[in-house]
């Protein structure tokens, strides 16, 4: 469902009457268009995406308001912040997306609740001015002659003084292509954590990707993007680090939850760092190109681990969750655990079903620890689900499918989703071309329903900080909700378009 915020003629007259005064006082032409799309809907809930186009002069900050008509409420929003008073919702920009150029756009999305009906809003304002889909301009007759009399022939009188010059909307800038987390949001399963050292996972993101520390003087630097929605500025790392060693000390969360991943403090299994902490990855160890531009991935050697506890808006208990990451078959092993996903806040094993993470490697856990032991068909590497006390290829444990003997691509897209009660699904793909393969989608293992998720997000280790795994990480996201196959196919296509090499 899609509606454009082009308001009826009565509302347009309000804009002409009140909007021009505001524009004149600010010496700026005000004009905007709002596209509101209900991207998904389910009993009692829905997801929506909102795109604002600036048809007037550039703005440095924005505030979008509308009123719901049937008692709907916003429950979670990304790419901005919101307040709701009764039916009226007001969304303000995030710190990094306040500026909109003439002809430019900004997008945000949200999940909402409804009862009885979910009609789309019909009127929107931006910075207090109604959006009509155009730029209001006063007509010359709105400026009366001081005397009202005709001027002498051949001499311009007061009525010949032209009115304010209409302001052109300027050239239209096409909106940036939606990135992975825009697509998840459009599917009603927003990213609660979006981590990458190579590129933006939101089309409008223009903040830092990761932080590095220089070995010689312990100074820090944030590494950002070449442009909003684009690729990492690897030259900034090269310039800062020079010939000195550099360590990745933090991977920033691109979502508004700010679930950044610092180096883990350790856990049940002590890391090799100070006071049992884990280590950061060598910032120079994994050079690649994305879209023809140099970038650096995260090479997780044994002992490297990143983690944030009590992550904001992370699914807990039996709430559904989805995960994807881009990794590689070039650097794997059989040990626990090269994971990305959710784990325990205590960094200890708190029992079955307290984790939901992608495990990538050649581990055949049930061949070593199963009772009875259950060897795998093939040698891997595989996409597995680390659900705590088991790395599952299927609900019974080990892979028995001869068509899933191992995944071998320089860049692998790995996928896992879990609805918390009845299903978990594993997928993989070639991150440089093609679609997705689903080696398993079915029931949860015995004793794992319902799930008991905790809200620690981790990369490179197991839930109890088991840190003997190894792997390569380029990007990934964790979602609230169980992503649809269509959404995952769209994200896979966006990854392929990123052109990893």
From TrEMBL:
Signal peptide coordinates: 1-28
UniProt cross-references to Gene3D superfamilies, sorted A to Z: 2.60.120.200, 2.60.40.290
Molecular function in Gene Ontology: alpha-L-arabinofuranosidase activity; polysaccharide binding
Biased composition (Low complexity): 144-158
Region listing for Disordered, in residue ranges: 131-181
Keywords: Carbohydrate metabolism, Disulfide bond, Glycosidase, Hydrolase, Polysaccharide degradation, Signal
Active site: residue positions: 388 (nucleophile), 464 (proton donor)
Pfam family, one: CBM_2
Disulfide-linked positions: 181-191, 241-246, 336-337
Hydrolase as UniProt keyword: yes
GO biological process, any: arabinose metabolic process
Span of domain CBM2: 25-134
Superkingdom assignment: Bacteria
PANTHER family to which the protein is assigned, alphabetical: ALPHA-L-ARABINOFURANOSIDASE B
Protein's UniProt name: CBM2 domain-containing protein
Provenance organism: Paractinoplanes ferrugineus
